Amino acid sequence: MHRYIFRRLLLMLPVMIGVTFIVFTMMYFTPGDPARIMLGESAPEDAVQRLREDMGLNDPFLMQFGRYVTNVARGDFGRSYTQRRPVATMIIDRFPTTLKLATWGVIVSIVIGIPTGIISATKQYSLFDNVSMVLALVGVSMPNFWQGLMMIIIFALNLRWFPASGFTTWKHIVLPAITLGTSSAAQITRMTRSSMLEVIRQDYIRTARAKGQVESVVINQHALKNALIPVVTVIGLSFGGLLGGAVLTESIFSIPGVGSLMIQAIRQRDYPVVQGGVLFIALSFSLVNLLVDILYAFIDPRIKAQYK
Amino acid sequence: MKKNRKMLALLSLMLVVVLVAVGCGSTTDAPVTGDDKPSVAKDELIIASPSDAVSLDPHGTNDASSALVMKQIYETLVVQDENMDLKPGLATSWEKIDDLTFEFKLREGVKFHNGEDFTAKDVEFTLLRALKSDHIGHIVGPINSEAIEIIDDYTIRIGTSEPFAPLLAHLAHGASGMLNEKAVTEKGDDYGQHPVGTGPFMLANWSNGEFIELTRFDDHHSVKPEFKTMTFKAISEATNRTIELEIGSIDIANNVTPNEIKRIEDNSDLILLRDPSLGNNYIGFNLTKAPFDDVRVRQAINYALDVDTIVEAVYQGVGSPAAGALGPSVFAAHTGLEQYGYNVEKAKELMKEAGLENGFSTTIWVNDGNRQRMDIAEILQNQLQQINITTDVQVLEWGAYLENTSKGEHDMFILGWTTVTGDPDYGLYALFHSTQHGPAGNRTFYSNPKVDELLDSARRTADPAERERLYKEAQEIIRDEAPWIFVQDNENLVGIRNNISGLSLHPAGHHIFYNVSFK
Fold first, then answer.
1. Chain B 56-115, residues with CB within 8 Å of chain A CB atoms
2. Which of A114, A292, B137, B186 is least crowded, fewest Cβ atoms below 10 Å from its Cβ?
């Protein structure tokens, strides 16, 4: 098991380099001059050219890429073109916010999704099942952006229960977390339901019942554990995705997370920030995937045996 | 049944856990935002802007959000009031020594936020550093670095390389805010996060991407603000700014968009402030591409577009239809120009003269994220059908838009311009002078030797009356040659709660907030 984990960690390195190379290439060839964007449309051309020279933008592609990789190896992620602040600081500053948001979003989705999925499965075709499936469909179809705005209007403006923007007190987390959680909740509900349905039909469940086992134990211990694998995958993917920053939600609630930083940096062609951000997202995503795979091992001993 | 009750218990337990966990979440240091009550703490003024400042180093950036915050922190030698008239700032008086040089007498007893005294050395330091700035060097560019001479602690001479009439207006621009040498050298690359100025407010706390908190500078030489704290919150959605204003968790909402006007005006707790700004919106032609090299075609298109309706429909009556290149707040703006107006017959006539009765196909470029400009493009597409012109609307991302229009790859494009100094040189030179083709600002690639001559002369002439005459002539020619469709002269829209008074809007959008009081 330890060897497995170690190997996985090592494999992340080529992934990082590959991701960096792809993003670097894309940014390099995308039209839009960071110097011109920074100085604005009313700056004279010679000022722009001077800035390009200073930023090393006129150097050949491989030279720029090589320079970047060497610096990263030394722990220097460069400074933002626009803010002049170290990229690492900028991202680390925003990471706790994104982490909090992602975590609470996932918690909301789990709290809503798994119980609903279980009940839907055990009471298939009941009113509860039908209603929750419809709600799940609605949850997935509702655009994040719109839902966020609706929540602000209802709960912040009309009811004054929660604030409309910002991210400083615990009250600020509620609305964005629910907005984020509901769309993932829908996915988790459906996944839990279908997975449970499959598992409930299995012979060993029949055996457990035949043994005289209490139904709740049958469901929660025997069935659920086996049904969880695909669900854990979905949860892991959605958490990993959220770590990349829930851009629309961040925008609507004015939350300074990694997502909005990235969008801003891309628009401004703030290459160091984009590069740093992408590396960071790739790293988080890989780690989350690894955690999910390790979790599989604890849920399913058959999988644990495969990890050598 | 037992099964159901257990399930219910499980669910309730989970819910309780979540609620407890949420309830015990950590709180971080936050300014008093008054989120929990409809009325705001009177010792704090909260302003919402579309984005956070990028840097509080006037030489490190040229964006509007940073400029707004810096306006409260720094002061310039010369100041422009709401009528864009020049008034003493940190300089109490000035005198023209010769064609190239001004001598400034500086105010005494001015302190920086770090306790240092403001003297001529700081002026010299600031200007030399500004000249080297990639971001705003062009605003102080006309100044000759060798011609800055300190006479004594409170007297300094500033010279330009060539006669440059708009110098004083440029010295009133935020980019010319006075810096303290000690503070800048101490902080080095991080200065932008730790500004030190002479203004009535100083930086207390900056949570990047979220808010900037300023606190009153009690040693300011003349201004005594009523409140202690000024907070700028970054709220990117216009609708959200309005909602926050309605709730009362902010006092002032900046950059109100036309769609929000009705909501604010209908709310008795709020007031909408509006004043002409220094910005405009225009549609440009690429004069290097046929048939836009033919003035008749350009004029025809001007006649074919109903600009008045656009201002009504797209901008909801914000601003006014433009007749020329300069808006009414700019010095020497020609207010007597005749608008082309909506005259389809005349348009058809001109197209016929140009041999293009049967029209042609073309494209119009718009940048993404600007709802109004996209609406204008669609209206244009529609109205140009009347003269048999088929237009394809293409939306480009901002960076790509700037780059490709600089290269002249476009046919027609929609853009805007803000004459931040209030001086016609800034509003015309970069846009219409033949040396400024492409990225510098002249994206129509317009060239007219007579206009060049007028603009160059007006730059050098010190006499305001003469400058006005020259600029008016230039504006007439530009209007007749129509490298643009003149669309709209813009307005600044700011929403405030009705207990706010004393806010007067600055045409450049750099409003002063420290004179505001609560009723």
1. 57, 60-63
2. B186
Run means of pLDDT, 10 residues per run, chain B, 519 residues? 59 60 43 44 89 90 90 95 88 93 95 95 95 83 91 94 90 94 93 95 92 95 94 91 94 93 94 93 95 94 94 91 92 92 94 92 91 92 94 90 88 92 91 87 94 94 92 96 94 95 91 93
Chain A residues within an 8 Å CB radius of B14: 111, 115
Q: What is the DSSP letter of B118?
A: P
Are the beta carbons of B304 and B362 closer than 8 angstroms? no
Nearest CB to A164 within list B14, B28, B247: B247
Residue A246's pLDDT is what?
Answer: 83
**pTM (global) more than 0.80:** yes
- Tell me the residue type at B223: V
- Residue A80 belongs to some domain of the structure: no
How many domains in chain A? Answer: 1
* In chain B, residues 446-475 whose CB comes closer than 8 Å to chain A: none
Residue with the larger pLDDT of the pair A60 and A30: A60
Structure tokens that stand for A230 in this block: 């695909």
Range of the domain at A218: 95-307
Q: How many contacts does A have with B, using Cβ atoms within 8 A?
A: 183
Residues 175-204 (A) with a CB less than 8 A from some CB of B: none
Q: Which part of chain B has CATH 3.10.105.10?
A: 279-490
The residues of chain B that CATH labels 3.40.190.10 are 196-276+492-518
Check A84 against B62: CB less than 8 A apart: no
Query: In CATH, what number is assigned to the domain containing residue A260?
Result: 1.10.3720.10
* Residue-level pLDDT at A264: 84
Indicate the residue of B3, B403, B440 with minimum beta-carbon distance to A215: B3
pLDDT digit string, tens, across residues A239-254: 988 887 688 888 889 8
- Residue B79: strand, helix, or coil: strand
Query: Which of B24, B236, B243 lies closest to A152 in CB terms?
Result: B243
CB B202 within 8 A of CB B217: yes
Q: Is residue A127 part of a domain?
A: yes
The set of residues, in sequence order, having a beta carbon less than 8 Å from that of B34 and lying 6+ positions away, is B40, B41, B44, B46, B248, B249
Q: How confident is the model at residue B17, as a pLDDT?
A: 61
Residue B132, class by beta-carbon neighbours within 10 Å (0-12 exposed, 13-18 middle, 19+ buried)?
exposed
What Å distances lie between residue B287 and A142, B361, B390, CA to CA? 46, 16, 18
* Domain B196-276+492-518 CATH assignment equals 3.20.20.140: no
A31 touches chain B (CB under 8 A): yes
B368 close to A (CB below 8 A): no
Say if the Cβ atoms of A82 and B55 lie within 8 Å: yes
pLDDT at A144 > cutoff 70: yes
Structure confidence by residue, pLDDT tens digits, A66-121: 888 888 888 888 888 888 889 999 999 888 899 999 999 999 999 999 999 988 88
User: Which candidate from B22, B190, B247 shows the least CB-CB separation from A156?
Assistant: B247
Q: How far is A65 from chain B (nearest CA, A)?
A: 21
In a domain, A211, yes or no: yes
Please answer yes or no on whether A41 and B441 come within 8 Å at the CB atom: yes
Per-residue pLDDT at B2: 54
Mark yes or no for CB contact B399/A32 under 8 Å: yes
pLDDT confidence of residue A150: 92
Q: Is domain B52-186 in CATH 3.90.76.10, yes or no?
A: yes
Integer Cα distance of A258 and A281 in angstroms: 9
B33 in contact with chain A, both atoms CB, cutoff 8 A: yes
The beta-carbon neighbor of B398 closest among A48, A171, A267 is: A267
CA dist list (Å): B33 to B198, B244, B267, B480, B494:
26, 11, 21, 53, 20
**Which one is the CATH code of B279-490: 3.10.105.10, 3.20.20.80, 3.40.50.300, 3.40.50.620?**
3.10.105.10
Residues 6+ apart with CB under 8 A from B5: none
